[in-house]
């Protein structure tokens, strides 16, 4: 059993990442409810949840359901792992609970999710998190962890209270004890921007060309666009006052290519998986967020504007034909 008392945890959005987190937490003895879609949830309810892959195996029997209905009993922690375009819906559901979760942690792609949940649930009880491991649903009832670039990070936005810092530390310990290495950080904003820079070229280019992360970086043409997207995003972050730990965009790119990309080179991004399945992607929370932040900061974002347009075009083609579109963006700066 964990050194902490078992927690009552709801995972709102039990896809691959949510199921991985929930599966390890449940296997460690926490009272976990997964909220996701059938047939995955139906299989988990019947046979339990298996997690396989590089974090090691885990088998558990969490509660599994398809609706985020109110719970009569108190809930210690809600982990929000839905796609960013569903954040408002989840926030509205949690806000209606008779017993709201004591803490809510956004573990989502893009930026803006922590702020939105804070506005709906009270910022003093909301934290952000950075997940930079990859997973897939191999078959209903099984999540498979494929790659990992860094520990999960959990922390508040700036101007946080001591209670928020303590909670971030507690939840990082709980995850680590459960088998998913995590760390608490004093300010989650720079960490979320770091992941945004990591995703902003790889995800759309991998999605619209049907490539893994490594294949994107190895393509001479796409490598130019990949680096231009990170450079443009870095300029927006700096102009927005985000305290990134690199001196300039070139230093971040060196870190990206040397440290972040190699362990995740074989990964198929969630944006690519969504596009191939005919689902809505998170391009607006990633590249669109950079375009909007650039507009506020007065920084042009032509690369990200083209990537947003290309992914939306591919979404339309995917819905119409059942397969992803293709696009060859010019590098631009």
Provide an overview of this structure.
The protein is α/β, with parallel strands linked by helices and 333 residues long. It folds into two domains: 8-186, NAD(P)-binding Rossmann-like Domain (Rossmann fold, 3-Layer(aba) Sandwich); 190-321, N-(1-d-carboxylethyl)-l-norvaline Dehydrogenase, domain 2, CATH 1.10.1040. Helix content is 47%, strand content 17%. The protein is built from twelve helices and twelve strands. Helix 3 packs parallel to helix 4 (113-121), helix 8 crosses helix 11 and helix 11 (283-297) runs antiparallel to helix 12. The relative contact order is 0.11. The model is unreliable at 324-333 (pLDDT under 50).
What is the H-and-E element order?
EHEHEEEEHEHEEEEHEHHHHHHH
Q: Which architecture of the largest domain per CATH?
A: 3-Layer(aba) Sandwich
> Any idea how many domains?
2
Major sheet: arrangement of strands: 5-2-1-6-7-8-11-12
Distance between the termini: 53 Å
Look at the structure and give the CATH class of the largest domain: Alpha Beta
Report the major sheet. 8 strands, mixed
Q: Could you state the CATH homologous superfamily of the largest domain? A: NAD(P)-binding Rossmann-like Domain
What structural category do the secondary elements indicate?
A: alpha/beta
CATH domain fold name of the largest domain: Rossmann fold
What fraction of residues sit in β-strands? 15-25%
Please, what is the average pLDDT? 92
